[in-house]
Amino acid sequence: MQRHHLRRRALLASAGLAATAPALAACGPDIASDEDAGSSSLLKAPDRREGEITIWDRSGDLFEVFEGVIADFNAAYPDIKVNHVAVDIDAKLQNTLITGADVPDGVFLDDAKVGGFTEYLWDLSDVLAPYAADIAPQKLDVNTVNGGVYGVPFDLDPGLLFYNATALEAAGVDVAAIATYDDLLQAARDYQAAVPGSAPIHLEQSPFLGQLQLEMYASQLGTSIADADGELRLDTPEFERILTFLDTVRKEGLGTRAEYLTPTDIAELDNGNQVFYPWAIWFSFAPQQVLTATSGDWRATQLPAWDAGGARSGAMGGSSFVLPKDGANADLAWLFYEFLMFNEAGYTAVWGPGDVYPEGLATSIPSYTPAADPAAPLYSGITALGGQDLWTVATEAGAQIPGGTPTPSWWAGAVDYLGNDLQRMLDGDLSPQEVLAKSTDDIQTNLVDRQ
Amino acid sequence: MADTEARTRPRIGSHLFLMLLLAAFLFPVAWALLSAFKPADEIIRSPLTFDPTQFTFDNYTAMFQDVPIGQGFLNTAVVLLFKGAATMFLAPLAAFAFAKYQWIGKNLVFGAVLITLMLPTIVLIIPLLLEMKELGWVNTYQALILPGAVDAFAIFWMRQVISAVPDELLDAARVDGCGEFAIFWRVVVPVIRPGLAGLGVLTVMNIYNDFVWPVVAASTERMATLQVVLSTLAQNITGNRIGADYATVTGELLAASSVALIPLLVLFILLQRHFINGILAGSVKG
Amino acid sequence: MTAAVATAPATRRAPRAGRGPRMRRRLAPYVFVLPFVAVFVAFSVYPLFFTARLSFTDWRGTGAATWVGWDNYTYLLTNPAFWSSLGNSAVLWLLIVPVQMVLGVLVAVLLNNAKLRLRGLYRVAFIVPFVTPLVAVAQIWVVLFDQRYGAVNAFLGLFGLPDTGWLTTSAWAKPTLALLFLWKTTGFIVIILLSGLQSINASIYEAADLDGASKTRQLWSITVPLLRRTLGFAVVLQTLAVFQMFAEPFVVTQGGPYNSTTTAGYYLYNHITRADLGTGAANSFLLVVLVMALSLLFVRLLRAKD
């Protein structure tokens, strides 16, 4: 398991205290030694079909899903041994890449974080070329930095409006009539009038997820924090409009402020106080595995539009697979991901019914369009959604997500500014205009200017 | 030490004050140890009660299944053995040189030791990590053991303790024909035994509880120490708890914390006299 | 055995009998400190010099490093976030150190009474938190102070008090973190102060008793002044600890909410997680300078009073 592909200096091999002298002789950081800037970082598809790859995944349901797919992969590639490890990726990846020791060949990573690691990653433009035309544009955008593509797109996560159908029906609110966010506000007011003390719309309290949700709303409007050149475009009418909507929910007391699926959130969902959850498709995890009293009452529909006739969905979150340059067999890891994402046997095994999700992986849809065919569902009726055909809802929504919304490399760092300021607005301490002005200023100084 | 202790029996108010404080100091640990034996749902539903009829090992069973805590204990034991031995031998030896000899560079080196005392651990994390990379030591026991193997505080403290050893004792040994190391080993070490015992407990405690460096130096589960294993589990409850079942994770966390607490608590209660006397012997006097 | 190793060079160089022991005595300290110095240089001094050089570059962990002069330092010194991290540490200091010293002196004076019943139990019980692994107790803190399910709010609820967001509101997060620190380290401070008390001569109190001075009066006019050096040592020790505080916010609050628990140490860590290693190195040095200055200041203040 342990592979030291580091060049140990002969003198240092004896280790122990003898290390002191040569370490000092180097006299100062060996900073630029192991990176020749000009070397190509374009991954080429391998000729070989055997070897061992180490794959990192986050522990939890997805780890189990991928674990189950390895057998299918080995049916196609019997000589590639997959060493599959559950890792706290956020905590470990940075240090592992810096030290170059025990570097995995493939890593599951949040889309929002791919940009921060590109210097350590293979550029996949070449191997992805045959598939690029069939990949959801938003997913290619988020993985593209300076013309290179640094991740194999995994899931597409269309934003949907989840709602508690039973509770809303009892209150006489017609969800089918909600076409715009103004309609949503009105529906929330109506529900509150029928159920006093309720706070129908979810207001996210985690700075990170709040910023992610903000990007979902922005994606609907075809924009994002920064454009393809990394220029900020936060202080714009689009963002002001979104924040004003959220601020209205707060001011009118229509929102339940809670962190996503924490105990408080779950309680408010299960007691019928919180009935609208505009979120990515992965919220479907809640009725399937977390909610008790209201599981089966929930349904999903497309998001409201900002303007009548506008896009009814935006992307929120999602992940990709990245291949570190220091991974000894990253080229073989590409074969693994190619099989999982672009081979019918692969994506059927990932999204279709399995041990972990008996009804299929209904927390996302494939980003590879041929796999996300409304006519050829990988999963369909979901019991926890009252048997609703989530596949159709999601693929139709996914097809509407506008492109042109790249993720800057500093996206995760912006949470300290935009994410926090958004929460301050929901506390009632900042106005939408103040959030945008302040965040723009802070992000420019602390992130954009310091790249 | 002359008996300088106060003269009258304390009043009832003092007892009340101390008792309240005692309760506050023991409550969190006692609560965790007890709650770990409650059904996970009960821990969060009624945190202040304990129903003996509902006593359960479920949290422990689940924790041992989910968390590689055995590997963590093993790694901590290895580090403890080697790093502890290095500190316990090398720190008093070096402190002996600082306390009882004149040599070129003594003040300079001791000054450097004092400055190191003021360095936040985290300051050296990145350069140390890069040094480990150059040495090829990332994810090895060497990386966990050698940096900080001789703690600056241990040197500082042992120097205080050894300074108090009378020079006449050393000179008498020299007259008897003792070599310099023999003086250290046969004269100084026996005399400073209480201080050494204190250092021993403190060293075990520091190494056992160390967290910042191991979390960086050991990026694989295979090398994770007990504290690293614990902090990883903790991420489920504080950071990425999306969808995690709060009650279950809390139960496992309390079980894991208890398992981590108990060895040190037992060790401390067995050795508390040495530890407290050791600190009393070593600290600065009014 | 090791003694033979230590003395070998001396015997070689000093053939004449009689000079051997003196030569050995001169060389011995060098041999004794050598292992320590080797480890010290390799894993403390060298990394420190490395950090110094790094602090003048924009290195991000890979690729070439560009020399940027004092850029990182000016960036930090003009950055409100840097100052607010120091401010957070300063507030924590205020919440911790004065409280701890008052509590420490009171408890130490009470425990110093040989006639106190259960004295041994108290001494052990108060130091138990100091011995427990921080990561474990920090976890327990998170669970205890949870807004909805925590034992603390459940307890306060018995008195009809509303649930408080101990770890989720900027107003309470710092005091809650300070409480953890106080709980964990006060026992250690008590023991240190006890050692100081034991060296105060009892006859001083006897004289004061004869003069009819009250116990409270004696505490203020005898014990505290005579305990000044020990107190000073304790204050310096805790000041260093508070300004280096990292693991507590790392485990309990991750620096939040709204960076209200982003201590000086945690802010430094933020640069590292963003691979902004040059800025991190510069921040390290600013922190070291601050901590050294504070320590020197306290030492000075205490000397001036002597």
Automatic annotation (TrEMBL), chain A:
Pfam family, one: SBP_bac_1
Main location: other
Family: Belongs to the bacterial solute-binding protein 1 family.
GO cellular component: cell envelope
Protein name: Extracellular solute-binding protein
Annotated compartments: Cell envelope
UniProt entry keywords in alphabetical sequence: Signal, Transport
Signal peptide: 1-25
Protein species of origin: Glycomyces albidus
UniProtKB/TrEMBL annotation, chain B:
This protein's name: ABC transporter permease subunit
Alphabetic keyword roster: Cell membrane, Membrane, Transmembrane, Transmembrane helix, Transport
PROSITE patterns hit by this protein: ABC_TM1
Gene Ontology cellular component list: plasma membrane
Annotated source species: Glycomyces albidus
Regions that span the bilayer: 73-96, 108-129, 141-162, 183-208, 253-271
Sections of the chain in a coiled coil: none
InterPro entries, A to Z: MetI-like, MetI-like_sf
GO terms for biological process, alphabetical: transmembrane transport
Domain of life: Bacteria
Family: Belongs to the binding-protein-dependent transport system permease family.
Cell location: Cell membrane
Ranges of residues in domain ABC transmembrane type-1: 73-271
Mode of membrane association: Multi-pass membrane protein
